[in-house]
């Protein structure tokens, strides 16, 4: 009887509740999903996005994240899956999900999340902390060479890929990363 009372004592329940709360708190405070990482981008901010206006919410979310990072002045490796199909596969492989939405952000190779997550991190000031150490660049991310598309027509094959399909400098669209803003 005594043991039974002990098991159901209010103190114990309170303790359990506190532990549960703490676990919940820790979960929401962990911005990075440990297992999801993007190889080769340990020193970058990578954003997978689309410039297609097909789905309004997606397009707006992509613009939002783009602008948010732009306002903070950091250099971003923007990977437009609409301009380069291999980016989509890359992202799907990284998160292990074929139905991944856009945009998706990785900082220092670690998965951060979508536009909603970024917005919360930005509002709470956490984003600024996460971006510490990245050089601030002016004039921000505006590029006159590619018009911020981050891709330009291939200067190596001038579209010859269409015939031979063997240019190592450009992708399936005959585009190469803008040499001016993407390094
Ligand atoms: Zn080419
Ligand atoms: Zn450019």
TrEMBL record:
InterPro entries, per the entry: Glutaredoxin (IPR002109), Thioredoxin-like_sf (IPR036249)
Superkingdom classification of source: Eukaryota
Transmembrane segments: none
SUPFAM superfamilies in the record: Thioredoxin-like
Domain Glutaredoxin: 46-112
Protein name, as recorded: Glutaredoxin domain-containing protein
């Amino acid at each position: 009887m005594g043991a039974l009372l002990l098991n159901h004592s209010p103190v114990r329940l309170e303790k359990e509740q506190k532990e549960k709360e703490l676990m919940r708190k820790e979960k929401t405070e962990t911005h990075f999903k440990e297992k999801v990482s993007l190889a080769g981008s340990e020193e970058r901010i990578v954003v997978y996005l689309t410039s297609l206006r097909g789905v309004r919410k997606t397009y707006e979310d992509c613009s939002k994240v783009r602008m948010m990072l732009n306002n903070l002045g950091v250099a971003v490796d923007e990977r437009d899956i609409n301009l380069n199909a291999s980016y989509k596969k890359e992202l799907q492989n990284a998160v292990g999900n074929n139905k991944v939405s856009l945009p998706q952000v990785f900082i220092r190779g670690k998965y951060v999340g979508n536009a909603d997550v970024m917005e919360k991190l930005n509002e709470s000031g956490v984003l600024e902390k996460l971006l510490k150490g990245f050089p601030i660049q002016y004039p921000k991310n505006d590029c006159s060479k590619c018009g911020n598309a981050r891709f330009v027509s291939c200067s190596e094959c001038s579209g010859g890929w269409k015939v031979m399909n063997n240019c190592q400098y450009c992708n399936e669209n005959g585009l190469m990363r803008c040499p001016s803003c993407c390094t």
